[in-house]
């Protein structure tokens, strides 16, 4: 069977912050990045939710990490499992502000980041299913600006990579 990491970005809710009060931030999409070689984003940007509400992306994607075709991804997963001090052991979710149609001079702006540690999934032997993870302010990493509900199913792939490490 093809080994894969399944990622689902279900929804996003914001707490009161500079983001909710900023009039120029109107539409949001979410990007998911694995290290530096893979980035996927929700095809839709949705209107910024009011405080206490959520916007629903229900976006799923799959990263194949089988030996045959996805060597780079696989080597990266190996490095996560073998090098305990590797800082980039996480899937990184970025909440991005998409400028409105009539403001094309504005750039897309990263407003927040959220992380899922693949190493932790392996250590706990537990996938992350519909879990709320903190979104940190891009301008102040100690401030939480909201919650992103995500699913990351990676355990099967990580176990397989781990088996391979033992056999190398």
Keywords for this entry:
nine-stranded antiparallel beta sheet, thromboxane A2 receptor binding, C2_domain_sf, Immunoglobulin-like, RPGRIP1_C, alpha+beta, 168 residues
Q: Which shape, going by the Cα principal axes?
A: elongated
**Rg over alpha carbons:** 17 Å
Task: Tell me how many strands there are.
Answer: 9
Number of domains: 1
Number of helices: 4
- Output the CATH homologous superfamily: C2 domain
The parts where pLDDT drops under 50 for at least 5 residues are none
InterPro entries: C2_domain_sf, RPGRIP1_C, RPGRIP1_fam
Domain RPGRIP1 C-terminal: 3-164
Protein name: FTM protein
GO molecular function, one term: thromboxane A2 receptor binding
Question: What features would you describe in this structure?
Answer:
With 168 residues, the protein is an alpha+beta fold. It is built from four helices and nine strands. Strands 1, 2, 3, 4, 5, 6, 7, 8 and 9 form a nine-stranded antiparallel sheet that branches. The mean pLDDT is 90.
Task: Write the SSE topology.
Elements (H helix, E strand, L loop, with lengths): L3 E11 L3 H4 L5 E8 L3 E4 L4 E2 L6 E11 L6 H12 L7 E9 L10 E9 H7 L3 E10 L2 E14 L1 H13 L1
Antiparallel strand pairs: 1-5, 1-9, 2-3, 2-4, 2-6, 6-7, 7-8, 8-9
Protein name: FTM protein
InterPro entries: C2_domain_sf, RPGRIP1_C, RPGRIP1_fam
Organism: Struthidea cinerea
